Amino acid sequence: MKWGFAPSWSVTLGALALCALFIRLGIWQWERGNTRAAEWTKFSQGADKVELLGARGLSQVARFQRVSLDGRYEPDHQFLLDNRTYDGRAGYEVLTPLDRPDGRIALVDRGWVPFAGSRNKLPAVTLEIRTLVTVIGRADDLPSGGLAAGRAAPSTDSNWPKVTSYPTMSELSAALGRPLEPRIVLLDPQAPDGYVRAWHPPGMQPLRHWSYAIQWWCFAAVTVIFWVILSRRKTSP
């Protein structure tokens, strides 16, 4: 009894469809890895020097650029960004308004604080400093959520601090009752008056995306191998 190669149309078409899907998913993950690599490079380059912001707005510097700006903290009107994790633990990131001398208001992310165990018991994020301070940190965008179900705008009542999840800057401005700069400042890890600040670019590391791409391409190769095995037929001598 000999073996021959006689693939069926149904198996061949199924294998082609799977291979095309796996290859496309691999390309998608590879491109995402390249995008993340560019962001991580930009994040690294932003640490090279500190730009004095002066009278400029945060939107006038590159994202992730370290900047220095003056202002007065407004500790009575702070926001707690919900659904923020650190080292696998749930918690909040603390956004504190900074009144700049030119009238602009910037939100300073002072870092992560742990969940207190109950939604009715918010962490203590009081700040006694009300004098003019110099803040050094990175210009960044607000965190954005992937699912609309995870979004929650801050309340417009008189209670502070306000808990919010993946808000827009316009929603924060409405809750504060004043316009805010379109970007926030990630307070430097070495700066005072902050909490846990292990800043990094958003999303996964580029290497993980590239490894996922290779996995998808391996699935395509395995599909070809199975197609070959299923296409073998016994033939009479």
Estimate the mean pLDDT confidence.
Answer: 88
- Biggest sheet features: 5 strands, mixed, barrel
Count of helical regions: 3
Helix content: 25-40%
Name the shape in a single word.
Answer: elongated
Order of helices and strands: EHEEEEEEEHEHE
Write a concise keyword list for the protein shown above:
two-stranded antiparallel sheet; 237 residues; alpha/beta; 27% strand; 3 helices; single chain
List the SSEs and their pairings.
Layout: E1 2-5, H1 9-45, E2 50-52, E3 66-73, E4 79-86, E5 89-99, E6 105-114, E7 133-140, E8 162-164, H2 169-176, E9 184-187, H3 206-230, E10 232-235
Parallel strand pairs: 2-3, 4-8, 6-9
Antiparallel strand pairs: 1-10, 3-5, 3-7, 4-5, 5-6, 7-9
Helix pairs in contact: 1-3
Describe what this molecule looks like in 3D.
Helix 1 packs antiparallel against helix 3 (206-230). A 5-stranded mixed beta barrel has the order 3-5-6-9-7. The model has no long low-confidence stretch (mean pLDDT 88). It is built from 3 helices and 10 strands; from the N terminus they run E-H-E-E-E-E-E-E-E-H-E-H-E. The protein has 237 residues and is an alpha/beta fold. 30% of the residues lie in helices and 27% in strands. The protein is elongated and about 90 Å long.
